[in-house]
Design a protein that fits this description.
Helix content: 40-55%
Structural class: mainly alpha
Largest sheet: none
Number of helices: 4
Order of helices and strands: HHHH
Radius of gyration: 22 Å
Strand content: under 5%
Length: about 80
């Protein structure tokens, strides 16, 4: 399986209790991975990708401000609980 960023991984689950158990030297069926590149290049996805990138950028900016100690969220996140009451 390939992740959205192109990294590859193998996802194994314990399956269904109704399915037969596997034994040594058995072959397991697999599924073809989702081709995210073709999905992102398909018609109508440019707006979705642009929105995801914009949201990601906004979240990054917000978290940077919080980490720098600016705003109410930074005050709430960085103030010890004993001082908040």
């Amino acid at each position: 399986m390939a992740g959205l960023l192109g990294d590859k991984f193998l996802l194994l689950t314990d399956g269904s209790p109704d399915a037969p158990s596997i034994h040594h030297d058995m072959l397991l069926r697999s599924r073809d991975p989702v081709n995210y590149e073709s999905v992102l290049q398909s018609r109508g996805t440019t707006d979705v990708l642009a929105n995801v990138l914009a949201i990601s950028n906004s979240i990054r900016e917000l978290l940077d401000k919080i980490n720098q100690g600016h705003g109410l969220l930074a005050e709430l996140a960085c103030t010890p609980i004993s001082r908040q009451s």
